[in-house]
Amino acid sequence: MTETPATPAHPWPHVFEPGDPGTPVLLLLHGTGGSEHDLLPLAPRLSPGAGILSPRGPVSENGMNRWFRRLREGVFDTADVVARAGELAGFLGWAREAYGLGDRPVAAVGFSNGANIALATALLHPGELDRVVAFSGMYPLDAHPVDTDLAGTRVALFNGAEDPMAPQDSVERLTAVLQSHGADVERATHPGGHGITADDVTAAALWIGRAGVVR
């Protein structure tokens, strides 16, 4: 595993591993309070041999790493979400050039806050990110307009039916917005709350193998 610290080329600390030829690159996006190392153990379970690109969220909330600011629990600073989604799209564009990824498929895998920034980026910048596995994610853009064409975008949503941090009405809205703009959406709901279950991982691995690497 190659860990790349902050450099003048890009200020986000991140981990990059090229993986095996012919595999996708998994863009791993941690949850609140996590780091670029949190989701690394998940990668081989989702796509053995895949490349790994795992950055650290650039926002600090009381010392916890996040991807964007929030006003309070469950209430996002939408303007910051939009700005940070642009930054993540820029990071991905930078990584494609810096690491010679070319048109190699990239699938974002995010948990909680990481899922939300992945979803926001896919909604606003589908040219940079059009494959998302979102664990415990929700609709991240509130009233901000979405006018992108998401035909060709594929999203897999894994949520808990009793998750107070990602309520089902927000997941329903997310699904409706994605589909109304042409995205292909698959959903799986487990009976628990906020988290990633073993069944979620198994289903996500099948989804990546089926949809995440095919353009």
TrEMBL record:
Q: Which Gene3D superfamilies match?
A: alpha/beta hydrolase
The UniProt keywords, alphabetically, are: Hydrolase
Record's keyword annotation contains Hydrolase: yes
Q: Which residue intervals define the domain Phospholipase/carboxylesterase/thioesterase in the entry? A: 13-204
Lineage: superkingdom: Bacteria
The UniProt entry, under InterPro entries, shows: AB_hydrolase_fold (IPR029058), LYPA1-2/EST-like (IPR050565), PLipase/COase/thioEstase (IPR003140)
Annotated GO MF terms: hydrolase activity
Keyword Hydrolase present in the record's keywords: the answer is: yes
Q: Which family does it belong to?
A: Belongs to the AB hydrolase superfamily. AB hydrolase 2 family.
Q: This protein is called what?
A: Alpha/beta hydrolase
Q: What species was this sequence derived from? A: Arthrobacter crusticola
